[in-house]
Design a protein that fits this description.
The structure is a homodimer. Chain A is α+β, with helices and mostly antiparallel strands. Chain A contains five helices and five strands, in the order ααααββββαβ. The first copy, chain A, has helices at about 20-30, 35-45, 55-65, 70-85, 125-140, and strands spanning about 90, 100, 110-115, 120-125, 145-155. Strand 5 (about 145-155) of chain A pairs antiparallel with strand 5 of chain B. The structure holds a DNA duplex.
Chain lengths: ~160, ~160
DNA sequence: CGTCTTATTGATAATGGTTTTCGCTATAGA
DNA sequence: TCTATAGCGAAAACCATTATCAATAAGACG
């Protein structure tokens, strides 16, 4: 199995274990190897405060800051793998780059409000949105992978004259 | 005013005129010039059947096919301008490129169901989603620009074994 | 524990969509 | 019509992401 065969992973685990253990199990289950790099990359994503999202470059910067030298090929490959494993979510916030966030199953599905000017991202929860998307997918015979609801606007700080 | 000053356009028109006329009015109102290129680029987007989305390259291809030679710098600039004017909507369907669609005010806000495998895009309407996003934005003092709800999954044709 | 297979890493080069540059052209106001 | 300058387009630059490939190391097996 090559490292590019990771796109069809469908099974999930019932998890109450630590994320490190979860990673180990998932990788094993799919025939992937447990490497220091993958573990450290996931750890970076987990340490991020809720509501913050990291780009591939952000991840590398944080790793570099803590003394880890991991090439960006590895960062990108690991991020994709973790997304395929269902551990991370890839966000398309209409910016030029992609962002990643840890997929906490305990945390309700949340969505994003983005300021088109300064790029600030605010999260909000709404379970109805997710079920709407889910229904829509299933009604058309699709298997659901992800729902992303992104609202773009101008935050109070960037908004034109009126209020600020 | 330079052509890169187009990002702060906030006013809209009440329109019952033909799109060509609308374009003319909007451009005039903002101090932009009415050029053949801009008119033809908009026309391409308008001629597309509903539910189809074009990338910048698609637009150029269609223009080339009908004998129009317009440089891609111009295509990109015009697309951005038309988005800023509120005539087009820029879609982030999590693909590598961006897509554009004509913003028909008569047509209800619609959203997209994307097959992660083959990239097929299906549209669906749901007014509640839009009002949810609108409320969320306004409650936080944001002025609303756009709401995009994108559902990703595997279409029946690409889905794993089970049904096909 | 050592050996072997091969998945993985990482430096580098390549890719590909988008943006910038800059001299030329053409719009729109005087 | 004339003039100022917004806009065009070919080519080069940009920049996030992906591919290449030789070296490395995880994990299986004896």
């Amino acid at each position: 199995m090559t490292q590019s065969d990771s796109s069809k992973i469908s099974e999930r685990l019932y998890l109450e274990d630590s994320p490190a253990e979860v990673l180990r199990m998932l990788l094993n289950q799919e025939g992937f190897r447990i490497t220091e790099q993958r573990q450290k990359i996931l750890q970076v994503l987990r340490e991020v405060p809720e509501g913050e999202h990291l780009s591939a470059e952000d991840v590398q910067d944080k790793l570099t800051a803590s003394g880890e030298k991991i090439g960006f090929s590895t960062i990108y490959r690991a991020l994709h793998l973790l997304v395929d494993l269902g551990i991370l979510r890839e966000l398309n916030l209409s910016e030029e780059r992609k962002f990643y966030e840890f997929c906490n199953p305990l945390m309700g599905a949340h969505h994003h409000l983005v300021c088109a000017e300064c790029g600030t991202v605010t999260e909000f929860e709404d379970s109805t949105i997710f079920s709407l998307g889910s229904n829509e997918a299933l009604n058309r015979g699709f298997s659901l992978l992800d729902c992303q609801f992104t609202v773009r606007g101008l935050c109070p700080h960037c908004a034109p004259s009126l209020s600020v």
